[in-house]
Design brief:
Blueprint (H helix, E strand, L loop, with lengths): L1 H19 L2 H23 E8 L4 E8 L2 E10 L4 E9 L2 E11 L8 E10 L2 E10 L15 H10 L4
Antiparallel strand pairs: 1-2, 2-3, 3-4, 4-5, 5-6, 6-7
Amino acid sequence: MKISISIFFTLFIITNELIAQNPSDSLYISSIDSIRKKIKKQDNSLIHKQFKDTSYNRTVVKSFENNKLISIFYVNESFICSENVTFHMKNDSLVYVEYTLSAPDIRSSRPASITYSIYFKNDTQIHYSTSYYPGAIDCILPPLEDKSFVEEYYYYKNLNNK
C-alpha cells in the first residue's frame, strides 16, 4: 500500500510539472531546433561565387543554395559614396531588393546612409520603404525611378553564369 501511494504521488508531481509548463516553451524549443537544423543545412549547401564586373567596376557575389541562385550582391565603391545592392529571389523570381547608398562620417562609427527596401511581384514593384541615417556627408541620391532594378537583376543573373 505504501509503495502504490508513493508511486501515485510521484506520478502526480511529474504530471503537474508537465502540465505547468508554458505551452509556448515547447514551440520556442522546436523553433530553435528548426533554426539550428536550417543553419547546419546552410553550412553544407550555401555557396558564394565572387567575380568582378569590369563593365561597371563592381564586385559581385552570387549566393547559391543547393545549386539554386538565391541572392546577388554587388558593391560599387567610390571615394565619396558607396553603393551596394542585394537582390533576393525565390523560385527564380525577384522578390526583394535592398539598395543602400552610404558615405563616410568621421564623427560617427556608422556611415551616413539611406536604404531603400523594394518589394517585387512578377517583376513589378509593389512596395518600398526607406530608412535614413544622416551624417556629415550625405550621398546625392538618384531618384528611385531612375534605377531599373529588374534590368540589373537580369543582367547580373546572367553575367558570369558558370
